[in-house]
Each structure stands twice: as C-alpha cells, then as structure tokens.
Amino acid sequence: MSSNTKRIKFVSISVPVIYGNNAVRLSPEKRKPNTPPDHTHEWTVFFKPVLNNIDLTPLIKKVTFKLHETYENAVRSVEKPPYQVTETGWGEFEIIIKIHFHTGLELGISEKNFQIFHGLKLHPFNPQQPLKENGEVNSILYDELVFQEPTEKVFEMLTRKPVNLLPYSLSNPNNRDQEFIRTDETDELARLEVYIKKIKDEIEHQHNGYKDLEQEKLALLQ
Amino acid sequence: MSANDILDVLNIQRDELKQPPKKKLKPTADSNPRLGMARELYNLIGPNTPPVNLSSSAYNTNTKDRFKSKPSPWTRIEFKPRKDLKVNFNHWVKGSRELLESEEETKKPYFFEKFNVKLDIPELVDEETFDLFMKEIEEHEKEVQAILAQRREEKEQARKREREESAKLKETEKSSDNKLHQVKKEPAEVPKESQGDDKKSDEEDSSNEKSETKEHQDEKKEDQEKESEDEQKSELGQKWSYDETKYLFELCSAFELKWPIVYDRYNWHTTSRTLEDLKEQFYRICAKIFESQENSNPALIESLKVFSKSREIERKNYLENLLKRTPAEIAEEESLVIEARRFELAAKKMLLERSHLLTLLDSPQTTQPIQQYQSSQGLTNLYNNLMIIDKHQKKRQLQQQQHRSIGSLNQDPVPPPIPIAASSSFKKDRSFQTHLQQYLSGLLKQNQIVNPSVKQEANTIQQLLAKRLTQKEEEAYGLFFHGTEKLTPGVILRSSQKLPGLQQKQSVLKSVNSVLHELDIPTAGGTSWKPIMPTRKTMTKYDELIRSVVALLDVKKGKDKLEAEIRLIKSQRGLQ
C-alpha cells in the first residue's frame, strides 16, 4: 500500500474543471409555497470537470457548498455528480465550494480537502457580454485542478483517460460564456503575447530614455 | 634488559613488596642454565613464571621407560626355500626357539614361497605330432599365399587394364621402384626394446596393430604381399626342426617368456632368427597344442592366432622411425598438426557462416504455430484482425487531420501535427521519448531495483509508457514534467498557482496593476487579475507578462532616479 501513496516527483497532472453559477429571475409560476417572498432569483451553483466523460468519483468523496449563513442548512453536501446546488435568493455572496477527497491510505489518496471560492452572480456583471433574452446570468469560470506530485494511485486514476483533452468547438453556440474550448486558450495566449510585446516595447522605450538621461547627466557633470 | 628495567622506564611500580624474594630466586635459576631460550629473552618474561616447564628432563623419561620393558626374543633358524634344494640356509626370525621349532611352525610352507610363481607354458608335444602341426601350418600358409596371390593377380590385371594406354616406360619405372621397395622392406635387425615384452602385452600390441593397420591396408597390401614372399623364402631356407622348437620352448620357460632375454640367449647352430621368428613359432605351436587339447580356452587360442609376424615387424619399424625422428622433423610434424587444426576450425567457421547466409536467404520462418490459420475459419479471423488494426490506424489519421483543420481555422499557433504520409518520420516520432517518459521509465527502473514487488504502480506507468505518447498527447493527459523545479505536493487550483512572477511585495504588485492600466491592458479592475482561462500555458505566459512588467518598473525606477539626480545637478548649477 505504501507504494500507492508514494509521490511521483517532478510531475503534475492537471484536470480542467469549471465551476460557477447560473441564475435566472424567479418567475411567479416557479415560486413554491415555501419560497420566501423576497427571493428574486433562482440560481444553481456547480462544480464539474470540463469533460463530461471524466469520472472523478474514485477521487472525490463529496463536494460541499457553503452557502450564506442565512440559508437553512448552510453547508450543502453533494456526494455524487452532478455536484450542484439549486437555491433561490435575493442577494449575491461568496460560496465556498469544498472538494473532499477520499481518504485512507489503502486507497492511496492522501490529498487535502480543497476549497474554491466563487462569488455568486445574480445580475449581469460583464458589460461586454450582451444580455440574454431570458435574462439568464452565467458566471462560469474555468480552472484546473493541479495534482502536484501525485501519488502513484492518483497518477493511475488520472492517466486512464486523457483528462485535459479540451474540445475545439462549442457544443452550442449560445453557450459561449458557459463553455471553454481549446481555442480560448490559444486566444488568451495570443492576447497575453500582445500584452507582453507592449510591455517589452515600453521597457525598450524606458531604457532608451534612461540612456539619454545618463548622457545628459554625464554632460552636466563635465 | 629485564622486565624490571622496562617497568622502571615506563614508571610503573609493581609488586614492590615481592621484589626481594624474587631477587633471591634469580641466582638459583641462573645456576640451572635454561635450554631453548636466550637468557635475555628469558629475563624479559619477568616476574611471571612461564607456564611451560623449560627443563629438558622430559627427554630422559622415555628412555627410562624403554629400559624397563623386556626385549622380544629373536632366533636364528634354519629354513628351506624349496623342498628340493639341498643347501642349508639360516635366517633370523622373531620369536623364541621353542615356539618356532614346534610342530605347527615347521609344517608351514616357507613364507615367501607364494611369491615364487611359474608361467603356465604348455609342454611341447612329441616329434610326430609336431611334424603334423608343422605340416598343417605349412598347408595353411600355402592356402593364404594362394589367396594372396590370387588377389594380387586380380589387382595386377585391374591395374593393367587401367594403364593399358600408358607408356611402357612407365611400367619399367614402376617395377624398378618396386624393387627398391623390396630392398627397403627387408626385415631389419630389431633393437632390443625395454618395453614389457611379455606375452600378454605383445598380444595386445598385435591386436592394436591390427586395427591400426586396417586403415592403411589397402595402400600397404602390396608391401605386405612382398614381405610374405620374403618370409616364404626365408621359411624355406630356415625350416623349424623339432629340436630347435624344443630348445625355444625350454628357453621360453626358463626366462618366463621375457622375449628380449630369450632372443638374446638364443643360439641354435647356424640358424639366425629374429625375435619375430621366435615369437611366431612359439605362438603358432602353442595355438596348435591348445587346439589339440580338449579343455582349452578358445579366447586364448584366438589371441595366439592373431599374431602376425609381418605386422609385428611393421609396428616395430614404425616405432623405430618414431624414435629416430630428428627434432626438425618433430617440429615440422607439430606445425603440421597445428595447421591441420587451423584448417579444421576455418572449415567449421565457414560452414557456420554459410548456414547463416542460407537462413538469411531463406524465406522467414514463423516462430508461432500457423496451425490456427490453416482452416478457412482461422483465415477469416486473421483477416478480420488485420482489418481492425487497419481501421484503428485510419481513425487515428482522420482524427489528427480533423484537429489540424480546426487548428488552422482558428489560427492555432501550435504547429500542425506531423503529416502521416511521412511515415518514417511518424515512426521516429513514436519511438522518441519525451522528457516525462524518460523520467518515468527511469523511475520505473529505479523502483524495480529498490522494490521489485511493486507491480500495481509499475503497471500504470508502464501502460502509459506503452502508449508512447507524443508531447501533444501528453498534454491531453494533463501530464507535465517539471524537470527539477520544486513542487509542493498536493492539489492546487491553476489560478492560484504560485507563480515566481507573483512573489513580489504587495506594493509592487499594485504598481504592476497600475502599469497594466496605463498601458490599456484590461485587468478587470481588481488587483488579482488572472487569465480567464488559467491553463498551464496561459499561466506561464501570464507569469512572463508580470515579470516583464516588474522589469519595466525597475527600469522606470532607475530612470526616475536619474531624472531626479539631473534635476539636482541642474538646480545646483543654477545656484552656482
């Protein structure tokens, strides 16, 4: 068993995940009798791997969503995928998504539980994003769970399938802000490249200015 | 120097009280000189008394004991080695006279009598039977001669037929050659040999000789024939008489068949006979005698009959030649043997190489049984398997092409995958190990050395290695090899990865943000701006960006400082 918990050095495995929330305005017909009258939105907070065919259940025991204290049962625990909680509410707050890994040496997993903070969004937050007809707000973020120096068991689990194989196209063109595809990464890279170029140019500029000033100083001192 | 002196030098005080009596003892010890040990050395023993008694009195005790025991009696007594001898002999015997002269002792045969053995040589028969034997022998020999002559004639004829065309000159040459041979082969005086020439060894020799010569028989037949001719002549000239044979038998029994001695002492009137002649006569007569007896050993008769004078002579000639070889000849022979061995080896090698070559030229042979493919069902199975493999390959090609097309649509800066058409380079790519694979295989080996029982994990890594992923495919698995970079084990979010560029003071990071603002780089307002899609690549790029901004800040700072200095100088100048 000890062999399973041995960590493979200098290696990391990244698992792309998305998390975030969808929110829609609560329509009168959707209201339930027990829905507080001041709740205006219905939202769903979730956490899932980007690829639908990736099963993280051997690794993840449960995912808890810590809602605002005013909610009844503020810590919602979800043991099976989909890891998501649907609630109604009126205000935005920070939800703590906590991932609980299976524990036990015999499983060969010795990862600590892990938290992701997500700010719940009920109202449109990105001015560049055109408003949707149904008034749905999507605040979905891409991230990667990076298993640094994975144990051999984890390594085994995560190398069964290519976990980082991001799709190249959207499953639905309307989901532009809800899905992340490989080209987004390349776009971002290109963007960053442009920024770096800008900075480099600026450095060049500043450096030239610095040299001129040095000359000036020397001239002054003579 | 004594032990006490040493103790003094080392400043060790020891047994102060006991020293006076010791000193008294010493002179007595000196008076009795010790043996086997130098006096100086004995002194070094010091106050310790030696564990062994050094006096040599131990030698005396033994002799004393010896004197005590009584000596056993020895008696000078008469004895007879053989009953028929009339001479008187005396010798010393252990034991008292009374005991030795008792009835029992005198009846016993002489102790060394048993060593006086006699050879069992048959008695020569009377003259009549001897004549009969000789006649039989002669007849037998004549028969043999006739057969030999016949054979020779046949051979001669065959040879004649062969050489009908050849010139007569050659024929004459041949005959003269033959004559020369005859001269050569005249039985030479055989020197006395010291080898065990008793009957038995001779028999063995002759039998050995037989097998040896068998191979050469064909070549030597001619010579042998000639020899037998000579023998016949000599036989005719020196016929064995009864008396001479009797004389031979007497000598043989007298000297116990020690042939060199027999030969040496042989002196019968005018006839001169060789050792082989003597042997031949003795053996053949013995064989005849045994044959005439009823309870004779057939094996013995066989072995007696095997003796052949001509072969014996030949053997001795061979041995003589072997003995008379000059050192140069020996060396030559040895070198020839070595050469021959070398040739043999070379031949073997060549054969081996040739067989290798032949297998190479041959169609490849399957190592697996082909039985299963011999039926029609087996053939279809094989076909299906091949089709499946083919399909897989096609699918893979298709996928890669798709990826390429998508990449080109979106201006993917990632270089397009290696075209499959260049299959050789494709293969090369497959055999190439990425850094990760190199590292993992190394790890695997190490693990196997450390703990060969690790199987589960080995399987995983092995499986992965077996897939022979390319760099791109590795990326698809989310795998990354960090080289020697230090990692904190555990799970992290990519977005909160500790980038080296972010290891700055909070104030620096703030100014970084403001710089980004200044340069119209969207930072989404906050100070903790991150890529929208934090992947490994974007994060490294982001890190690069941050670091370049920090560098820019440094340059700016330096420039600002310089500007301030210049201003200061200017203001000073202005004042002056």
Automatic annotation (TrEMBL), chain A:
<keyword id="KW-0804">Transcription</keyword>
<dbReference type="InterPro" id="IPR055129">
    <property type="entry name" value="YEATS_dom"/>
</dbReference>
<dbReference type="InterPro" id="IPR005033">
    <property type="entry name" value="YEATS"/>
</dbReference>
<keyword id="KW-0539">Nucleus</keyword>
<protein>
    <recommendedName>
        <fullName>Protein AF-9 homolog</fullName>
    </recommendedName>
</protein>
<keyword id="KW-0805">Transcription regulation</keyword>
<feature type="domain" description="YEATS">
    <location>
        <begin position="7"/>
        <end position="161"/>
    </location>
</feature>
<dbReference type="InterPro" id="IPR038704">
    <property type="entry name" value="YEAST_sf"/>
</dbReference>
<dbReference type="GO" id="GO:0000785">
    <property type="term" value="C:chromatin"/>
</dbReference>
<dbReference type="Pfam" id="PF03366">
    <property type="entry name" value="YEATS"/>
</dbReference>
<dbReference type="GO" id="GO:0006355">
    <property type="term" value="P:regulation of DNA-templated transcription"/>
</dbReference>
<dbReference type="GO" id="GO:0005634">
    <property type="term" value="C:nucleus"/>
</dbReference>
UniProtKB/TrEMBL annotation, chain B:
<feature type="compositionally biased region" description="Basic and acidic residues">
    <location>
        <begin position="155"/>
        <end position="224"/>
    </location>
</feature>
<comment type="function">
    <text>Component of the SWR1 complex which mediates the ATP-dependent exchange of histone H2A for the H2A variant HZT1 leading to transcriptional regulation of selected genes by chromatin remodeling. Component of the NuA4 histone acetyltransferase complex which is involved in transcriptional activation of selected genes principally by acetylation of nucleosomal histone H4 and H2A. The NuA4 complex is also involved in DNA repair.</text>
</comment>
<keyword id="KW-0804">Transcription</keyword>
<dbReference type="Pfam" id="PF16282">
    <property type="entry name" value="SANT_DAMP1_like"/>
</dbReference>
<dbReference type="GO" id="GO:0006281">
    <property type="term" value="P:DNA repair"/>
</dbReference>
<dbReference type="GO" id="GO:0006338">
    <property type="term" value="P:chromatin remodeling"/>
</dbReference>
<feature type="region of interest" description="Disordered">
    <location>
        <begin position="12"/>
        <end position="33"/>
    </location>
</feature>
<feature type="compositionally biased region" description="Polar residues">
    <location>
        <begin position="51"/>
        <end position="62"/>
    </location>
</feature>
<dbReference type="GO" id="GO:0000812">
    <property type="term" value="C:Swr1 complex"/>
</dbReference>
<dbReference type="InterPro" id="IPR032563">
    <property type="entry name" value="DAMP1_SANT-like"/>
</dbReference>
<dbReference type="GO" id="GO:0051276">
    <property type="term" value="P:chromosome organization"/>
</dbReference>
<keyword id="KW-0156">Chromatin regulator</keyword>
<dbReference type="GO" id="GO:0035267">
    <property type="term" value="C:NuA4 histone acetyltransferase complex"/>
</dbReference>
<comment type="similarity">
    <text>Belongs to the SWC4 family.</text>
</comment>
<protein>
    <recommendedName>
        <fullName>SWR1-complex protein 4</fullName>
    </recommendedName>
</protein>
<feature type="domain" description="DAMP1 SANT/Myb-like">
    <location>
        <begin position="228"/>
        <end position="289"/>
    </location>
</feature>
<keyword id="KW-0805">Transcription regulation</keyword>
<feature type="region of interest" description="Disordered">
    <location>
        <begin position="155"/>
        <end position="237"/>
    </location>
</feature>
<dbReference type="InterPro" id="IPR027109">
    <property type="entry name" value="Swc4/Dmap1"/>
</dbReference>
<dbReference type="GO" id="GO:0003714">
    <property type="term" value="F:transcription corepressor activity"/>
</dbReference>
<dbReference type="GO" id="GO:0000122">
    <property type="term" value="P:negative regulation of transcription by RNA polymerase II"/>
</dbReference>
<feature type="region of interest" description="Disordered">
    <location>
        <begin position="48"/>
        <end position="67"/>
    </location>
</feature>
